[in-house]
C-alpha cells in the first residue's frame, strides 16, 4: 500500500520528512535547542553513485531502511502521467532473486513492515524489521531496486493497472472533494508544467501503459546514482558498510538524470471555478496562491504565516469566519513547498447550506484585519515553542530519522540540514512574515475552487466557471478489468559476483519489555509509568471510565460533545487564553471520548511537564462552560455529522455497528452521535454529564523523560483536589439476533466502488480467548500478507486493500472483514470473501500456525519503540488488569498454540453463516448483482432505515 495522489502528496511529505516545508517548520526551535540539535550519521558513496547514510540507534533491536528515488510525477510527460506512482506499484511485485510475491508477503512474516510512497518530486521505499532480518531486508530491498525489471510480465502490468485504478476510485472518484487537486493543478500551472497534473495521473494514460514504457522508465530513472539510501537503527557501522557494498554495489549506475531547476509560476489573472460534487454534503472553498519552492529562504516565513492566519483562536480567519460570521467550524491556511514550486492555500469547508460568496467575503475581511492589527509577540513565541516540540516528535523513531536524513540528502545534498533549517526558521522575524504576505498574498492572483454538493449549485461563488474533469465510467463485465496471476516471466538472471540467494536470519534479538513502575494516589487513581530518556519528551494521559457507555440513548454523543467543551477554556482562561497557554509550552493537550472511557492526553518537552500537567488539572477540574463556545461547537458538530454522510466508508461502518448491536443499544450508535441525538443536547445536559467524571477507577499513564518521584510529586495537587464519588458503568446487554445469511445494501448513486463490511459479534478483550482470536486472524486478514489482501488485491486486482480485525473492548466486540472494491467486482469479491470465511478453518494448516508465530513474535520488536507504543502497553495493563509481564505471557500463549488450537478458535468465532454483510455502492448497477450471493438481501438508507 502507498500514500499518494494530490493532497496525499502533502500527507506523505508530512509523514515522511521531518524537514521539507512542514517540518522545516518543525525545526523552528527555541534558539539554543535548535543550535544543539542534530542527528548523527556517517555518509559514503558507492562506486555506482548510490549515496548511503548510516545512523546508529541501539535503543531497540530494530532497523529502518529507506531508499529515495529522485523521480516523482514531475519527471513525467503529457500523455504518460501517473507513471512514477504506477512504477512504485510495479516495483513491489517480483524480482530476479526473490520468490514470487516475496516483497509483500515475506517482510511481514519476518516481523517487519514495508511500504512506499510517491509524490510530485520523488518515490520512497521503506521497511522496518527486527535486527535478525537485517541482511534479509538488504537482500530483498536491493533486489527490488536493481533486479526487478526482467520479471515484469503483461499479466503483472494489467493486474497492477487495476490496483492503481482502485486506489484512484477509493481516494478520488469515490470521495468528497476528490477532484479538487486536479482542478487546482490544471489551472495554477500552465500546460506542460511538471506540476500541472496529479500524482496519480490520468487513468487513460495509465491504461495505455506498455511493458516498453515500464522498461524505459526504469532505465532512465532507476539507476543507483539517482537515489539515496538510509539505514538507521541497531547497526554496526563498519559491518553495515560491507553489507551495503555487497547487496547494492552491483546495481547499475544508470544514466545521469539532469536536475530540474525551480519553476515557480505567476498567474496573470485570478481564476474562479466550481464543481458539482456527487459525494460532498458541505460546500468547500479553496484559494491557492503560487509561491516558492522548498528550501527557498521565504518558505520558512510562509510556513509561520500559515500558522498565524488560521491555526489559533486569536487568528483572524478563526475570529471572522468561525466566531463572528459563524460560516464554518474552522479554516486552514498553510504553505506547501515542493522541489520546483510552492503554493499557499486557504481552505474552508463551510457549514451546510452556506453560500461560498459569504465565505470569500469573510476571508477578505480577515486579511484586512491581519494587515491592520498584525499579530502579538506571544503568537510568534507560541508557534516557535510548538515547533520545538515538533522537532523532537518528528525524529522519535528510527524510521522518521531515516526519512529526515534521506530527504535532506537527496533534495538538499545535506543529510543534516535539519540543524540549518531550525536556525533559518528561528531567524524569521515579524518583518519577514509581513514581507512574504505582501509579496505572495496581498492583491495577488490565485486559483479559487468552489466544490459544492451536486444538488446545490447556487452555493458556488458567483460567476465561477465550471471546472472540467475526466470521470471514469465503470461498466459491468468489462473484459480488460478481468486480471489474474498469469505466467511468470522467462529471463536470464543478471550476473553477480555474489550469491544473491536469500541470506539466513541473524542472531535473534533479545526482546525485553520496558520496565514499568506503578503507584497509587491518595484519591485512588492508579499510576503506570515507563521512564525513557532517549529524547527530552513526555507523553501522558488521565483515563476516566465511562465515555460513550454513559451516553443516554436519546442524547448519544454527549460525552464526545462534553470532551470538546472541556477544551474551550477554564474558569480562569478563555478558550483563546487556554490555547495560548498550551502553545507557549510547546505542549499538546486533548480531551476525547471513546467507547468506554474519557481520555485527557498530553505531550510536551520534559522540562515543561509540571506546567503542562497543571493545565491538564485546570481543564479537568475547572471547565468554563462558555455559552458562546457551546453554540459554536454544536454548529461545528452538526457540520461534521452532515459531512460524514458523504463518506461511503463511514456509512458502512455506522450501519454495520447498528446492525450488530441494534438501534436500542448505545454501542449501536456512533460515539459522536447522530444529527437527531446531538440536536437535543443542551449546555445544562453537558454540565450534568460532567458530574459523571470520577476519580474512582481512573488511571494515569506516562512515558518519557520523567522519573517516578517527579511524576508523583507533580500529581499531588490532583490527588488533593479531585476526589469524587464513583459512577456505576452500565452493563451492556446484547440480545442475540438472527444474523444468518443477511446482507444489507445501501445506495450511493454513482459510486465507483462498493464498500464491504462483513462480520459477527465475537468476544470481549477480557475473554481468555481474545488474544488467540487475534492470532488466528493473522493469516486471514493481517495486512498485506493476509489471504484477503493477497487474493482481492494481488491476485484479482479488485481492491486497493482488504483486512479483517477485532477491536479490543471490555464489552463484546465484532469480528470484521472490510474492503472497498471496484463496482463491477462487487459480486465476485463478495463470493471470494464468503468462500474464504467459510473455509478458513478447513484451509488453515500447520505451516500457517508456524507463520503466525514467527510473524507476531518477531513483529513484537517494533511494538515498544515510540512513547505512544509505551503508553499503549500501560493502558492495556490498567484497563484489563494485566501484570507488567503480560507481554511475555502473551508470547508464551502464542508459542504454545498448535494447529488444532487455531482451528478451534476459528470454528468458534469466525462463522461465515452467522455474519452480517453490509454493502454500500451504486444501486443501479449492483443491487441485482449482490442478490446473486443467495443471502437475504435488504435495502436500507444511509441512516439504517429499511426501504
TrEMBL record:
GO molecular function terms listed in the Swiss-Prot or TrEMBL record: metal ion binding; peptidase activity
InterPro entries in UniProt: Metalloenz_LuxS/M16 (IPR011249), MPP/UQCRC_Complex (IPR050361), Pept_M16_N (IPR011765), Peptidase_M16_C (IPR007863)
Pfam families tied to this protein: Peptidase_M16, Peptidase_M16_C
Coiled coil, from the record: none
Record bears the keyword Protease: yes
Keyword Membrane: no
Domain Peptidase M16 C-terminal: 209-387, 681-856
Keywords, in A-Z order: Hydrolase, Protease
Any single GO BP term: proteolysis
Peptidase M16 N-terminal domain mapped to chain residues: 52-176, 537-662
Domain of life: Bacteria
PROSITE patterns hit by this protein: PROKAR_LIPOPROTEIN (PS51257)
Assigned protein family: Belongs to the peptidase M16 family.
Full protein name: Zinc protease
